[in-house]
């Protein structure tokens, strides 16, 4: 309950035409006497009108494109993911080799971490290359938290 004797959410219900007849009558009578609530209702009405009349522009799909922008970046990213695949294949081969051969798998065991690190470095390099390429045209570069 507010200082006015009714719940303040009744104003929004009144504005939207969602109140019962008794509640709408109670708010209407209160609005005749209270200039503060009339001013608040006018502000709410102006805000609702502004929200209804403001156009929403749907961005084109190209604005959301996350593909690498330059040829070197695409090559670096593809190379990085290829190294990740080599790492995954290395893990699988290492497990199979350990189960089947019960032998020494030092070569495969060394290749797996190298493949994962190389893959990560190539992907990071491609992302950095993209960031450097769009640095000058990024509309959000001046936005601070």
Annotate the secondary structure layout.
Blueprint: H1 9-16, H2 21-33, H3 35-53, H4 71-100, H5 106-134
Tag the structure with descriptive keywords:
2 domains, 145 residues, 68% helix, mainly alpha
Instruction: Let me know the average pLDDT.
Output: 80
Which regions are unreliable across 5 or more consecutive residues at pLDDT < 50?
A: none
* Class computed from helices, strands and strand pairing: mainly alpha
Largest beta-sheet characterization: none
The secondary-structure element order is HHHHH
* Share in helix: 55-70%
Shape designation: elongated
Give the helix tally.
Answer: 5
Number of strands: 0
Alpha-carbon Rg, integer: 32 Å
């Amino acid at each position: 309950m507010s200082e006015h004797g009714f719940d303040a959410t009744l104003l929004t219900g009144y504005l939207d035409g969602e109140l019962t007849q008794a509640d709408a009558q109670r708010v209407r009578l209160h609005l005749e006497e209270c200039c503060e609530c009339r001013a608040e209702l006018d502000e709410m009405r102006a805000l609702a009108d502004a929200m209804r009349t403001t156009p929403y522009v749907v961005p084109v799909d190209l604005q959301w494109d996350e593909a690498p922008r330059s040829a070197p970046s695409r090559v670096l990213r593809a190379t990085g993911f290829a190294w990740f695949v080599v790492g995954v294949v290395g893990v699988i081969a290492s497990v199979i080799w350990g189960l089947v051969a019960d032998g020494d798998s030092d070569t495969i065991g060394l290749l797996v971490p190298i493949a994962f690190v190389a893959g990560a470095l190539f992907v990071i390099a491609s992302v950095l290359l993209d960031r450097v390429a769009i640095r000058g045209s990024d509309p959000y570069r001046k936005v601070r938290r």
